[in-house]
Amino acid sequence: MNKRSLALLLVLAMMMTAVFTACGSKTETPSAPANSGQPAQSAAPSETKTETKTETNTDTKKEENHHYAVDSDTVVVATADEAPSVTARLHNAAEAGYNNNLMYEGLMRLNFDLAPEPALAESYEYEEQADGTVLWTFKLRQGVKYHNGAEMKADDVVASLEEAKVSPDVATYAKAFDNVTKVDDYTVTMTTEGPSAALLYDLCHHGNAICPADLIKSGHDFNTEPIGTGPYKFVDWKISEQLEFTRFDDYWGPKPAIKNIIWKIIPEGSARTIALQAHEVDFVIALDTNDADLVESDDSLATLVISSLSHSWLCINNEKEPFNNKLVRKAMNAAINKEDVVTVAYNGYAIVAPGQTPYGQLGFDGTGYDFYDLELAKKYESESGVDLNGVSFTVICSDDTKRRAGQVIQDNLNSNLGMNVELTSMDLATYLSETAAGRFEGFIGGYNSSEMMSFLKGVYHSSNIGASNKTRINDPHLDELIEKACATPENDKREEILKETSRYLNDLCCQIPLYQPKSLCAYNKYLSNITRNPAGRFWIEQWSWE
Prior knowledge:
This protein is an alpha+beta fold. Helix content is about 30%, strand content about 20%.
């Protein structure tokens, strides 16, 4: 048996390049070169840590100067979209992921530099078996409490990971492991078919969060009463209005400084900005970029700008005519001016997506990707055998930014190819449900992932048709490439497979990449310890009032 250490495995896990900038007023991150075939090689930054404050501010004058939305025990967060679920497994939505990070934890978690590290697992090791499989052993933290007071143990891990395997929205993140077994109350094992580069990242996904086994087996409704081990516990959900959370005082980790979190739903961008300036909210997750100058001129506020790994696109249903024709998709891609989309939709707070995979992740390759080129668009249309003049289809938009992007797309496809595009608005939960079921022709959406393997599995693997593979592409060679990458632990070899996959996707043109947005947040300047990584993870449990 060849037994490898934790340190060696962590080296394999350090795969990501991420570029970001955070600021107290306004700081912009460098834009990616428009025609770059490779991501810039920049070292991941170190997190700036400050001491967490836990005392309550009782000074009346300070309360007035700080302009809290509620008080010094509370932070009110404004967001555009409502989470479709507060469970760990019945969704794959970024908006719900924010709430999941408050309430749930898994065996592993992604750190600030996007590398997996132990969370509810205290340590782990792995061992090659004679039959070629790999046995992974996880030692659990002892004394970890759930929000209902019960202690987290091995039975809970087994039940949670078994449930993840049969939950359609997240099952793709539970495919790498099998045979999850309790050894004792604080030890579990699982196997992978061979060496796995994906396992530790998959165990960081919210779909593999650990919940009480007895509640899972009893059919407990986690969407009404979510129970996890996270730093905050659920209080209330007023549909279409707000969610409330309060500090979990028996949390196993550092005690959060802020006692109460209110998650307020404000769909309209300008309304979120007005609420922030009026100090009715303390933090805006997605500041409307058209309001950036307005907020940055307000001395009571601060902004945070981060180059995101989120990849956004015009998703086309590849099962419907004429979009099942690759050359039609390529003609549409070349007929859309992405620079104009970025200007109108994001006021410049984004980069033009330079390929079918996220720029900045290990394995990105822009070779073979087509940018805006009207002559090329006409050539593809001619070669497709389809006259696109007069072809009509509907594009779903779930927020103001997407609708602005849709207006540019609408104009471009009409002016350049004679296509008729109708834009329709839909709330996030309905949009997610309809698009997962394939009941659409086009929509503007995106996918946020911490590394390329998760992105490829979620967006393009055929096993996720009906879930997050919304182009509904079913290509055996593509599946084979993705699976081969996930089974290759050596960084350099995996990178070459991922690059080959990127190039193959650029040729398939399953969808029309638009932009990678810069994440723009704004908040009360007295709120401190604000950090966010390029994958979109906040550490709200570290926030405090100055």
